[in-house]
Amino acid sequence: MTDIDQALMRYKISGRYCRRTINLYAKAIRLFLRFTEQRGWSKTGLADGIIPPRVLGNQSIPKGLTREEVVKLLATTEGKRPCDRTDRAILMLLITYGLRAGEVCSLQLDDLNWQDNIVRVRCSKSGRTLYHPLSRSVVGSDQEIPKSSGRNSPISGYPVVSRVDTR
Questions:
Q1: How many CB atoms lie within 10 A of CB 160?
Q2: How far apart, in whole angstroms, are the C-alpha atoms of residue 99 and residue 101?
Q3: Cβ distance 28 to 36 under 8 Å?
Q4: Beta-bridge partner residues of 132
Q5: What distance in Å separates the CA atoms of residue 14 and residue 18, rounded to the nearest whole number?
Q6: pLDDT for 133 beyond 90
C-alpha cells in the first residue's frame, strides 16, 4: 500500500500530471485491486485503502485563452506575407465569433456578404446556419474587399481557406 501511495505522490510532485489524471490512475488501481479481491488473488480491504485525490468541478481544461495569450497569438501574424494575412483572418474568425476549426475551413467566399456585412456560418456540430455581423476587425481595414459577390460572381464557391501552410 505504501508503494502505491508513494507512486501517486511522485506523480503529483513531478508536476507533469494534473490532479484529474492522478485521480484516474488511483481509481484504476482501486478497480484492479477490487477485481483481484473478488478472484481471491489478494487480501480483502486493499482497494479501500486507495483514496483518489479530490477533483473539484472547476479543475478542468480552461474555457479559453486569456487576453494576454490572444494578443501574443495575434502578434505572430503581423507580417506582410500573404500567409500572415490569411493566418490573422483565421484567428480573428476563431476569436471574434468563437467558430470551430471545421466551421472556418468550410467557409466559402459566398458566405461573406460584403454589401450587408454579414458572414454565414454552417455549424458543423448542430447542422444549423448562423448569421453574424461581419466585423471590420475580422476583415481588417487594409483588406481588399471584393467588388462583386453573389451567385454569378467569378469568385463564388471558392473556399476562404484553401491551403495548409507548413512553413
A1: 18
A2: 7
A3: no
A4: 119
A5: 10
A6: no
Cell of 111: 458566405
Give the integer Cα–Cα distance in Å for 27 and 128. 40
**pLDDT for 91-115, tens place per residue?**
888 888 888 888 888 888 888 887 8
What is the rounded distance in angstroms from the CA atom of residue 68 to the CA atom of residue 62?
14
Please state, in angstroms and rounded to a whole number, the distance separating the CA atoms of residues 167 and 75: 17
Q: What are phi and psi of 64, to 5 degrees?
A: -175, 180
Q: How far apart are CA 38 and CA 42, in angstroms?
A: 8
pTM: 0.50
Cα–Cα distance, 119 to 126 (Å, whole number): 18
Q: State the pLDDT at residue 104.
A: 85
Indicate the length of the chain as a whole number.
167
- Give residues with Cβ within 8 angstroms of 14, minimum separation 6: none
For residues 121 and 130, the answer to whether their CB atoms sit within 8 Å is: yes
Residue with cell 474568425: 93
Q: Is 151 helix (H, G, I), strand (E, B) or coil?
A: coil
End-to-end CA distance of the chain: 51
**Cell numbers placing 9:** 505522490
